[in-house]
Design goal:
CATH superfamily of one domain: lambda repressor-like DNA-binding domains
Low-confidence stretches: none
Distance between the termini: 82 Å
Strand content: under 5%
CATH class of one domain: Mainly Alpha
Helix content: 40-55%
Number of helices: 6
Oligomer: single chain
């Protein structure tokens, strides 16, 4: 919630003291909310966001999971990370035909 409150304030162009005044709280409390030192709860966060001129909306979004329970891409990221620790294959050298069949 800290990031959401700070983002609403910054996007509104309001200073900490002005938003605190509009939201009926102190600037010290608002600062604590923005820093994540104190959790304002949903109702207080909604009041602050609305005082900044925004509407707080909660939306559910389905999180996709693979058959193993991992998020898509997590397994690929793990495989790529593991691959970084494997020794790299060297490219086979080509033999010079002049070594095998010397010219007369």
């Amino acid at each position: 919630m800290a990031m959401m409150i700070r983002s609403a304030r910054e996007r509104s162009g309001l200073g900490l003291r002005e938003l605190a005044r509009r939201a009926h709280t102190s600037h010290a409390t608002l600062s604590a909310y923005e820093a994540g030192r104190v959790d304002p709860g949903w109702r207080v966060a909604e009041r602050i966001v609305e005082a900044a001129g925004f509407q707080l909306r909660l939306e559910l979004e389905r999180e996709l999971r693979t058959s193993s329970g991992a998020r898509p891409g997590d397994e690929l990221a793990s495989v790529l990370e593991l691959a970084e620790h494997l020794p790299r294959a060297t490219r086979p050298r080509r033999l010079s035909t002049s070594r095998i069949f010397p010219r007369p």
